[in-house]
Design a protein that fits this description.
CATH topology: Nucleoside Triphosphate Pyrophosphohydrolase
Number of domains: 1
Helix content: 10-25%
CATH superfamily: Nucleoside Triphosphate Pyrophosphohydrolase
Strand content: 35-45%
Structural class: alpha+beta
Number of strands: 9
Number of helices: 3
């Protein structure tokens, strides 16, 4: 008979430490050939996004983050391939995160920075993005996926 408690015990991170994996969701919003990005308080640009709260789906998280950060409603129109950012921070163990990017449609372009985390919002053509300051994992995501996103603007995982 299967022993659930024994299985949980051997997976305890204190016994079998590997690394910590945090779960995040991000937006990919293209309009008129430009990508929507926000700049954080440290001066780095990225798509709107954030951590997935307990009990929340990545889809719910990215819609919530768009509302919290820019004050606009949005809807998920496509699920894009997940991205793993390895070793983005060091703690007792390396910390990585699993990012679920989603293509969103906005209900408005009337942005209001509603958080103390952001200093600016802008629309950028793909050729302008290389000049922006970005954290290494954000740069990797955009470098790795931008051509894919542009080649199939309507496509998500289900296409």
């Amino acid at each position: 008979m299967a022993d659930l408690e024994a299985s949980r015990r051997i997976r305890d991170p204190r016994i079998l430490p590997k690394h910590w994996m945090m779960v995040a969701a991000s937006s990919v919003v293209f309009e008129d050939g430009k990508l929507l990005l926000v700049r954080d308080n440290q001066g780095f640009w990225a798509g709107v996004g954030g951590w997935v709260d307990p009990g929340e789906s990545p889809e719910q998280a990215v819609v919530r983050e768009m509302r919290e950060e820019l004050g606009v409603e949005s809807e998920v129109i496509a699920h894009l391939r997940p991205f793993i950012a390895w070793h983005v921070a060091e703690h007792e163990h390396p910390i990585s995160f699993l990012l679920f990017p989603h293509r969103l449609r906005l209900t408005s372009r009337d942005f209001t920075l509603l958080t103390d985390e952001l200093t600016d919002v802008g629309w950028f053509e793909p050729g302008e993005i290389a000049a922006l300051d970005m954290l290494p994992h954000v740069r990797s995501l955009l470098d790795e996926r931008m051509d894919e996103w542009l080649a199939h603007p309507e496509r998500g995982l289900s296409s």
